[in-house]
Amino acid sequence: MPFSHHSHSGQFCKHAAGTLEDVVREAIRQGFRTYGLTEHVPRHRVDDLYPEEEGLSLDVLKSQFDAFLTEAHRLKEKYAEQITLLVGLETEYITDTDLTALDALLSEHGTRIEYLVGSVHHVGGIPIDFDRPTFEKALASFSDDTHPDSMAAFLNAYFDAQYTLMQRFHPEVIGHFDLCRLYNPGLRFRDYPDALERIRRNVQYAVRYGALFELNAAAFRKGWDAAYPGDDVVEIVKEHGGRFTLSDDSHGPHAVGLNYHRLVGYARRVGIEALWVLASPSLPDGASAVRRGVVSHKVTGQWWEDPFWKGREQT
Predict the structure, then answer these.
(1) Of 35, 61, 263, 279, which has the fewest Cβ atoms less than 10 A away?
(2) Rounded distance, CA 238 to CA 10, Å?
(3) Residue 148: its pLDDT value, please?
């Protein structure tokens, strides 16, 4: 049962740590049975590079991603008897150029990319999860005479970008759905009716095509007392029959399974009774096709009673 669909390594992500094989070995050590390898897609403008990437060329980022796919599939084969590794990617949507480039990337690599984690990390071309000052810069970019409430306009833009991404690519996993409130975890979407309407629209669309909504444990290490998404979004997903999965969003072996004991507690608190996992399309009963090279499969029984969860407080 134990699984994660979203991870990174320092080998292929400059703000992470460790090699991809380090990450896989740690997942095996902890008893994960399915683990998704999903490095970020390369960015396509020098202006969009993060500070730690200063001096890298766009060609280097492209080559780095190609090398990730090669290494991920090598590890998938090497450790096949110990763990099921899924090879995917995490999206970026900064400008329309990223969407066009992702189309090309998917065409180029075909079945080597088995699934997508659909994430938005920028609003108005500015990162929203790098640090608080950069987030405040993104928020301030929506403050003008046209948008007297900058937060409302910011949230609307975030969820519109998320919707566009889902429409174009149908990502199998919706990544950290409400990352837009990372630095405002107490924000309630009911106070922003237009954003709330967009959330419902996005959830309904994702449910219709069969996406899974990740419960992302990274929110705990960012200071939240909940996973992504918060309980108000969870209620909307449940209301529309959405399906949940788990992710640690690890950025190195040190973060594999981090706060998973809190993740299971949160899931139980908000009333999530069923979980789903991506798997190879060979699974028979209980599986439903999404796109690309995986199907979603419902975890049988009471998932929180799996032996994996015993003693997780130390992890």
Answers:
(1) 279
(2) 35
(3) 66
